Structure formats: C-alpha cells, structure tokens
Amino acid sequence: EPEVTQTPSHQVTQMGQEVILRCVPISNHLYFYWYRQILGQKVEFLVSFYNNEISEKSEIFDDQFSVERPDGSNFTLKIRSTKLEDSAMYFCASAGQLNTGELFFGEGSRLTVL
Amino acid sequence: SQQGEEDPQALSIQEGENATMNCSYKTSINNLQWYRQNSGRGLVHLILIRSNEREKHSGRLRVTLDTSKKSSSLLITASRAADTASYFCATPVDKLIFGTGTRLQVFP
Q1: Is B59 left (phi over 0), alpha (psi -120 to 50) or beta?
Q2: Of A5, A38, A41, B105, which cross-links B12 as Cys (Cβ 3.0–4.6 Å)?
C-alpha cells in the first residue's frame, strides 16, 4: 500500500540552527501539507502546497519556515533558525483530492531544539 | 474556524465494552473525517462520512452525522486493548482542521 515517508524520524538541533525535514508523498497525489504537534497538544495546520506553490499557511508558519518541492518526489519543510518552541512532531500529509478525500500522513519527524 | 471539538477528552473502558466519542464543529461541511493516532505516531484515517449521509459503518466502527446539530459520533464496538489511541475528528476546508481529540484507554 502506498505511504508517505518522512525523514529523519528524530532530529536534535541547537537553537538557531537550520533544520530541513523531508517527506516523500504518495506519488500520484497533488496536495501536500505540513502539520505540527507539540507534545500533548493537538495537531496544528502549518501549510498546504499545491501546483508548486503555497495554497494556505497558518499564523504559525512565519518567515522562519519555508517549504519546497525540489523535484517530483520530495516535499521539504525548512526552519531557518530554530527556537526552543519549535520542538514538536512534524507531520507531512498528502491527498489526491481537495476537501473530499482523506489525508495520508507520514509517521512524523520529531524535532528537539536544545 | 472549522475546528472540530471532541468529547470526552479522555475515556477509559474495559475490553469488550463499546466506546463512544462525540465531535462538534462550527460551520457547514461537505464531509467529516475521523482519524486515529497511536502515541507518538502518525494519524491514520478511519472513516469519512459525507454531509448527505447520516450513518456509516466500517468493521467495528460506526459513525453518525447530524448536520442540523453540527455534530458527529464515533462508536467503536467490542473494544480491544489495541484500540487504545487518540481519536480526532476533522473537517476539511482546503485543509483538514483537527479537534483536540479523545484519548481512549482500553484495559484488557
């Protein structure tokens, strides 16, 4: 069964460092998403991406964040200068349809900022 | 926002019992989805119910939708210890907005 894969599964970084989280969505999907979940809290929307551009972003997704689909398969989330409060699980998701279908989630990348 | 809110926040039951979780949302939807999250893992889609459906079944899952009350319920019948997880409802408006979830603990 096709699945969304994310790397790394866990990354530890120092505050102020740049981090890139990688995702390989399901191959024929067109809509891509990043969500974040701080430990013990709810899953929060960060950004959606379609047709090689950002469709929507939340207020969490400030200038320190960027997304890119550098080739036909990868979808990356970059945090330019990490802060302690960026420590969270980051989930990538993809969908074949907008609004009408399910999202397929990866297993997440746990980011720990020290 | 289209945020769903689940109730109760936590639920503990014995294996074999049924578990019912409720979700309320704020505005009109074309579908509502339920997801499951095992601790520290990704979310897994369980079931989608469209706005013109009132009830849907999938295995031991039964979902109802009442658009007049803007609410949905998820029933897990004959629960198992492996059903222990957090359950979220989600409503789509270009992106899925998740509620706070119900943490279900099923004791063997």
Answers
A1: left
A2: B105
Q: Which chain B residue lies closest to A45 (C-alpha atoms)?
A: B97
Instruction: Flag if A43 and B92 touch (Cβ within 8 Å).
Output: no
How distant is the Cα of B72 from the closest Cα of chain A, in angstroms?
Answer: 17
B43 to A103: CB separation less than 8 angstroms, yes or no: yes
Q: Which residues of B touch A98 (CB under 8 A)?
A: 92, 94
Q: What backbone phi and psi angles, to 5 degrees, belong to A24?
A: -115, 105
What single string gives the DSSP state of each residue in B25-79? Answer: -SS--SEEEEEEE-TTS-EEEEEEEETT-SEEEETTEEEEEETTTTEEEEEE-S-
- Cα separation of the two ends of chain B: 38
Using one digit for the tens of pLDDT, what is the confidence trace for A23-55?
999 988 989 999 999 988 889 999 999 988 999
Nearest to A43 among B31, B33, B43 (CB): B43
Question: What's B92-106 look like in SS3?
Answer: EECEEEECCCEEEEE
Distance CA B15, CA B92 (A): 32
Does the distance separating the beta carbons of B95 and A33 come in below 8 Å?
Answer: yes
* Contact yes or no for A107 and B31 at CB 8 A: no
What whole-number distance in Å separates Cα of residue A92 and Cα of residue A6?
Answer: 7
pLDDT digits (tens, 9 = 90+) for A47-91: 999 988 999 999 999 999 999 998 878 999 999 999 999 999 999
